[in-house]
User: Which sequence fits this backbone?
């Protein structure tokens, strides 16, 4: 049966480019800034979202996300609030390293991490733990902003987690998704029906 209500729309925006994203390094809790290109990407996303009817912007408290959110706020006039639930995974000892460097130094731990969402990097946070806090943050947003359009400015893992939740996909699905910097996704959440993924990794606003 079709849903009988108007959805709450979440627009999901990954922050713009950072020095660590250029080098493809793990940047979890590391509070790195946007590059000049990243600021331009955030501005392009803001222009794209100018007429989206955004009621509020909910951002990860990390600098790269709040800076991206500010660009959108300047164009839309929507208020910005932060929520710890949408921060990136804490990668612990792997922060600032590339996948190849981690594989070389922690081969067994990397294999275990890739195989089991309950396994955390040394001193870090598991994907299962991330899923729990991101889901809790989503519930807070949906409960307080029913049938509104909300922009969530976050990071790779939280956004992929929301997409997997909408699709009822297992945690392993996160490893099969690619999300570019400053990419947009859209999910509609119905109170009396399904969640619907309407777009994923949309970077049309970055062309040119």
Assistant:
């Amino acid at each position: 049966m079709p849903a009988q209500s108007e959805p709450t729309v979440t627009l999901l925006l990954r922050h713009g480019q950072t020095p660590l994203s250029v080098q493809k390094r793990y940047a979890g809790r590391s509070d790195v800034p946007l590059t000049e290109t990243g600021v331009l990407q955030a501005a392009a996303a803001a222009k794209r979202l100018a007429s989206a009817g955004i009621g509020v912007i909910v951002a990860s408290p990390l600098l790269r996300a709040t800076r991206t959110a500010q660009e959108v706020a300047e164009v839309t006039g929507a208020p910005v609030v932060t929520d710890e639930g949408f921060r990136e995974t804490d990668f612990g000892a792997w922060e600032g390293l590339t996948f190849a460097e981690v594989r070389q130094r922690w081969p067994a731990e990397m294999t275990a991490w890739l195989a089991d969402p309950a396994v955390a990097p040394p001193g870090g946070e598991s994907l299962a733990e991330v899923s729990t806090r991101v889901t809790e943050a989503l519930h807070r947003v949906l409960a307080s902003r029913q049938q509104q359009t909300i922009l969530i400015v976050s990071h790779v893992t939280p956004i992929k987690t929301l997409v997997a939740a909408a699709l009822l996909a297992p945690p392993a699905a996160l490893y099969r998704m690619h999300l570019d910097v400053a990419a947009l996704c859209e999910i509609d959440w119905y109170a009396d029906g399904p969640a619907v993924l309407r777009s994923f990794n949309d970077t049309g606003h970055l062309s040119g």
